[in-house]
Amino acid sequence: MNTVSFENVVKPVDSSFCAVSYRNAYFAAPLHIHPEYELILIESGTGLTFVGDTVRKMSPGDFMLIGRNLPHLWLSADEYYEKGTKLTCSSVYSQFNTDIFPSEYTKVPEFESIHILLSKSQRGLLFEGDKQLELQDAFRKLPTYDNFEKLVNLYKILYSLSKDCCYTFLTSEQYRANQAISENDIIIKKAYDYMNKYYQENISLEDIASHVGMNPSALCRYYKKNTGKTLFGYLSELRISYAAKLLMNKNIAINQVAYDCGYNNLSHFNRQFKSIIGKTPSEYCKLMRSEQNVINQNHS
Predict the structure, then answer these.
(1) How far apart are CA 159 and CA 67, in angstroms?
(2) Pick from 32, 37, 130, 265: most CB atoms within 10 A?
(3) How far apart are CA 170 and CA 59, in angstroms?
(4) Interior CA angle at 233 toward 5 and 218, to 5°?
(5) b or e along 26-63 (b: 16 or more beta carbons within 10 Å of the residue's beta carbon)?
(6) CA nearest 101: which of 17, 39, 163?
(7) For the segment 218-235, what is each residue's pLDDT rounded down to a tens digit?
(8) What 3-state class would DSSP assign to 199?
(9) CB contact at 8 A, 42 and 22
(10) CB neighbours of 151 closer than 8 A, spacing ≥ 6?
């Protein structure tokens, strides 16, 4: 089964962070997380962007900042995977941790706006406007610099993004709210961790409660009081969100997607999918194929 994978970011031996120019027939990384922040510019290639709980069209020129351990995936359109294709996908990206900044940088006034920007990136940011277009040119050059010059220029880019650029969030407010709750509440965090790990299996309330160390009924009440939803409401959203991602691959049958997402009953899966997405799996597939065709026509 496919799950959210952990990417081990490899830094150059003589550098504290990486800056890379990437080119391939398609974007190859699966849905993944890593503890580093990621600043990425899509140079070429179309398809879909998955960040947290949202899906959007991916286009050249997308300039994004992804927060720590925020699940993300760049899914190339179908034609990029065809045998013998001459199409290519390319990007420039930098992955870095806060250890590239001075110790206790959050208390340094000159880094305040960067700290705020990184905090906001936990919902994923898509930069907009003319100023970020200028910064794209500076960012393209980042992999070519020597180490000290590379670090200084990353500082400058992040500072300009934090002070001069507009952006939209890539995830919903509810997604970040759930993250904030799980970070500050050990009980909710344990429940989330268990469901995030085993959501593709046939887990029960008793399984979750045993992991958390609470009575099942007490856990249900506590979870509902502190999150505003039920345990199995969250579990269903998690499963269906993953199902929506899998359905982007036209070579996977709907019944296989249902099974891979923890559903043994196709009718139940169809009902759950429609209640959360607003369309049946078949209708959703047709809609996404239609949107993909529009993307292809716009870039042909």
Answers:
(1) 16
(2) 37
(3) 14
(4) 105
(5) bbeeebebbebbbbbbbbebbbbbbbbbebeebeeebb
(6) 17
(7) 999 999 888 778 899 888
(8) coil
(9) no
(10) 16, 17, 100
Cα(162)–Cα(111) distance, integer angstroms: 10
In the chain, the N- to C-terminal Cα span, in Å, equals 35
Contacts of 161 (CB under 8 A, 6+ apart): 65, 117, 127, 132, 135, 167
Give SS3 for 37: strand
Which of 170, 202, 156 shows the shortest CA–CA distance to 63?
A: 170
Q: Tens digits of per-residue pLDDT, 37-89? A: 999 999 999 998 989 888 888 999 999 999 988 889 898 888 898 888 899 99
Query: Which tokens go with 286?
Result: 């047709």
148 C-beta neighbours (distance < 10 Å), count: 9
Contact (CB, 8 A) for 36 and 70: no
| Non-local CB neighbours of 69 within 8 Å, separated by 6+ positions | 33, 34, 35
Distance CA 171, CA 55 (A): 9
Q: Do 120 and 173 form a contact (C-beta atoms < 8 A)?
A: no
How far apart, in whole angstroms, are the C-alpha atoms of residue 145 and residue 152? 10
